[in-house]
Amino acid sequence: MASFGNAFSSSIGKKLIMGITGLFLISFLLVHCFINALIFVNDGGLTFNMGAHFMGTNWLIRAMEVVLFAGLLAHIFQGFRLTFQNQAARPVKYAVNNGAANSKWYSRSMGLLGTLLLIFLIVHISKFWVMSRFTGIPTTDANGNHDLFAVMVETFKNPLIVLLYVLAMVSLAYHLLHGFASAFQTLGWNHKKYTPIIKAAGVWFSILISLIFAAMPVAMYLGLIK
Predict the structure, then answer these.
(1) 11-36 and 59-89 are packed helices; what angle lies between their axes, rounded to 10 degrees?
(2) pTM for this model (two decimals)
(3) CA 212, CA 39: separation in Å to the nearest integer?
């Protein structure tokens, strides 16, 4: 048991946890993006509220939320540990540090990008998840479902919140550009035939997911979705 714990506390073990939790969070993003994109049906939120109702009442989804938060916390914790560990390993910076020669700037800035996303998550959870799960949504739609769509419309009237969401999605895109392929690599899924496919899929996933998420608050603020 001790050796098992030591394995996961090692540098490789920490990266392995980051890879596993990262892939789990990527799958969550895919589902979350699909549900949120239902606002583009533009039917006054009826379809979106139906999807949100399913996500909030299905016992399996609710159980997976616990796993999701555990994975998210583990990902954040290990991310900070790796960032601090890397900084501690090089307390004195090189006189000439040409990091761009070996890696992209966003690969070297995962700690910063992750911190920006953490700030966004705190705001997002307080605005929507806490209300839908605990404090309650005060209104219902024509189908009798809690009108989370109305909460979104009201929230995204604030241009500062819209700006925060857009900037967070830019951070998410860069975070995923490194994290998507890195997660597969960390788990040892390297192959000269499939690795380029994984990297290309990671680029498209990073761009499309982030664009869809960013388009939601912008479209609501501009009154394109009602």
Answers:
(1) 140
(2) 0.75
(3) 11
Terminal-to-terminal C-alpha distance of the chain: 56
Rounded Cα–Cα distance for residues 50 and 56 (Å): 10
Per-residue pLDDT of the chain (226 residues; tens, 9 = 90+): 444 444 445 566 666 776 677 777 788 888 889 999 999 999 999 999 999 999 888 888 777 777 777 777 776 776 667 666 666 665 555 444 554 455 565 555 566 677 777 788 888 888 888 887 777 888 999 999 999 999 999 999 999 999 989 988 988 888 888 777 777 776 666 667 778 888 888 899 999 999 999 999 999 999 999 7
Give the residue among 28, 39, 210, 60 at the shortest CA–CA distance from 141: 39
CA dist 40 and 42 (Å) reads 5
